[in-house]
Write a sequence for this structure.
């Protein structure tokens, strides 16, 4: 586990340690900064587009092979119900807000590695705990 305590202007430090492809599960309370981190990742890839949480559409794509999922309250079930599980196995970077332990296990059972980022408040701004990077 890598732990970083950062202000909003220091998000590039988290972006640097995340993989270029694969699944990244983003966990944290409401308004903890999950979508803000996705915005920083998209910007770091040189993609100039508006990034919003795909709460109602479940998945959005940005640029070349960056996929953003929001599975609030439904975890793995939301991915399965929307027929998106196979998408997670495709080439690209898959950023999953609200991913749960069941999703992690399902990916592990298929031999897929995923990185998990847990975001919480800290004195400096936010604490990012990165597992599996």
């Amino acid at each position: 586990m890598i732990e970083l305590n950062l202000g909003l202007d220091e998000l590039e430090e988290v972006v640097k340690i995340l993989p270029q492809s694969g699944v990244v599960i983003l966990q944290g309370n409401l308004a903890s900064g999950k979508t803000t981190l996705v915005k920083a990742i998209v910007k770091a890839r040189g993609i100039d587009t508006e990034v919003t949480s795909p709460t109602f559409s479940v998945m959005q794509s940005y640029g070349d092979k960056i996929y953003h999922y929001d599975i609030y309250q439904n975890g793995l079930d939301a991915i399965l119900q929307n027929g998106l599980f196979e998408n997670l196995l495709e080439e690209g970077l898959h950023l999953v807000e609200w991913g749960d332990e069941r999703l992690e296990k399902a990916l592990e059972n298929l031999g897929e590695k995923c990185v998990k980022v847990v975001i919480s408040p800290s004195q400096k701004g936010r604490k990012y705990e990165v597992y599996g990077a």
Summary: The mean pLDDT is 89. The longest helix spans residues 34-44.
